[in-house]
Design brief:
49% of the residues lie in helices and 17% in strands. The protein is α+β, with helices and mostly antiparallel strands. The chain folds into two domains: 111 residues, no CATH class; 91 residues, Chitinase A, domain 3 (Roll). The strands form two sheets. It has a four-stranded antiparallel β-sheet with strand order 4-3-6-5. Strands 2-1-7 form a three-stranded antiparallel β-sheet. Helix 1 crosses helix 4 and helix 1 crosses helix 9. The longest helix has 25 residues. It is elongated. The N terminus and C terminus are likely disordered.
Length: 250
């Protein structure tokens, strides 16, 4: 295993280097991003309203120091956000439409059990209106929903088993599904509420961050695959200052 050696300790390379590479990639990407005086003033106003750090400088670890922006680059995050906007803002609407089926959410009732005979009996009681999910789930459901009276969600479709997501996407609120067998489980599902995804400001920022993270991971993988690159290639001057760094193999 490779390690980084510094004045105050040893840090496993596999933990630190990917993050160092990411910071290098970001620095290269935002190097040409310029901020207007209005943007700088807005950023400084926001910074002044934030509480100062509760951790003294002397308590910072090597990783904290290496991975933190230097003092003369305090606008780095603002420039990064502007880079995201300039690069992917025009793609957000089409990306949202592409992702919408996974972003739609639902609240649903669920009972799951491994016993086929029991699940059909419970379904009959629900269908006939003899009992409700709230009454049956705490007694018979064998998952976490037993603690919530069978209620699950809101949950995005992209986080669900494809079969469950398909049932919910093709149903109406209040619709009860006959028992379905998935792996070791028998499920009874009822859609309670459908929550279509909306492209509001929160969703816009989330998708912008997703596109950025996808790009960053692609760039990082390219860097890792280039075996001729060494640590020194990525230790830019502000990271090198004050550290005696060398590589050893164990």
């Amino acid at each position: 295993m490779w390690y980084l050696i510094a004045r105050n300790g040893v840090i496993p390379r596999y933990r630190l280097l990917p993050r160092l590479f990411q910071e290098f990639i970001i620095d290269q990407a935002i190097a040409s991003i310029e901020l207007t005086p209005v943007e700088i003033a807005s950023y400084q106003s926001r910074i002044e309203q934030q509480p100062t750090s509760q951790f003294p400088t002397g308590d910072r670890t090597l990783a904290d120091t290496l991975l933190s922006p230097p003092p003369d680059n305090s606008l780095r995050q603002y420039r990064l956000e502007k880079f995201k906007q300039l690069t992917w803002n025009r793609q957000i609407e089409s990306y949202f439409l592409k992702r919408k089926k996974q972003l739609d959410a639902a609240v649903y009732s669920l009972i799951r059990t491994r016993e086929e005979g029991l699940v059909h009996e419970l379904y009959f009681r629900l269908e006939e209106g003899e009992q409700t999910f709230a009454e049956l789930a705490p007694l018979y459901s064998q998952g976490g929903e037993a603690k919530t009276q069978g209620l699950v969600g809101p949950v995005e479709m992209g986080r669900l088993h494809p079969t469950v997501a398909q049932f919910l996407q093709n149903s109406q609120p209040g619709q009860l599904f006959a028992p379905v067998h998935l792996g070791e489980w028998w499920l009874i599902i009822k859609l309670e509420q459908w929550l279509p995804a909306q492209l509001d400001s929160t969703m816009h920022q989330r998708l912008l961050n997703e596109l950025f993270e996808q790009w960053l991971q692609e760039q990082l993988q390219q860097v890792i695959n280039q075996s001729h690159l060494t640590l020194e290639t990525f230790l830019v001057p502000q990271f090198q200052h004050g550290f005696n760094v060398q590589m050893i193999n164990s």
